[in-house]
Amino acid sequence: MAEDKKKEEIAVIDITEEYLKERIYEIRGQRVILDADLSEIYGYTTKVFNQQVKNNIEKFDEDFMFELTDDEVENLRSNFLTANLNSKSRYNPHVFTEQGLYMLMTVLKGPLAVKQSKALIRTFKKMKDYILENRDLWRDFLNFPCFSRHAEPCMMK
Q1: Where in the numbering of this chain does the KilA-N DNA-binding domain appear (predicted)?
Q2: What's the pTM?
Q3: CB 14 within 8 A of CB 42
Q4: d(Cα 52, Cα 38) in Å, to the nearest integer?
């Protein structure tokens, strides 16, 4: 049994902010990551990854993880050509919110899972810090007369 799981493992990637940003989508008003992308991060096939989740399904409430509808899958395919979607799969992909990602960290075990979980936590923190540090710039930018919703359009020279 342990040998079967070893056979299913795949190469692990380095997690960078850019890598993570390219894999975060907004669906149902929430920022989420596809199961296929997370399985790649953790070095599993999507099948083995989803089996780990299924074995611990009581930990994943609807606000932590949900299955995409057919329409959501089609929308993702048409709007994001880089989305990691397997068209041959019988099941629609699952997506994980940030809270689901943290819960996932309690399910996946082993040194590699710990290493990748730490990298994900650090990367999310850096991304949040960047947003917080620059929110005043965005507020000022959005309040600039040219970008105000109620202002007359500006003519840039």
Answers
A1: 23-107
A2: 0.72
A3: no
A4: 12
CA angle 66, 69, 74 (to 5 degrees): 125
Q: Which residue has the tokens 């048409």?
A: 78
Strands of the chain (E only): list them.
Answer: 24-27, 30-34, 65-67, 94-96
CA 50 from chain centre, in angstroms, equals 15
Is the Cβ–Cβ distance between 118 and 112 less than 8 Å? no
Q: Percent helix, strand and coil across the chain, each rounded to 5?
A: 55, 10, 35
Would you say 124 and 98 are in contact if contact means Cβ atoms under 8 Å apart? yes
For residues 65 and 94, the answer to whether their CB atoms sit within 8 Å is: yes
Q: Tens-of-pLDDT digits for all 157 residues of the chain?
A: 454 454 444 566 788 888 888 888 889 999 899 999 999 999 999 999 999 999 999 999 999 999 999 999 988 888 776 677 766 678 899 999 999 999 999 999 889 899 998 988 888 888 788 778 877 776 776 666 654 444 454 444 4
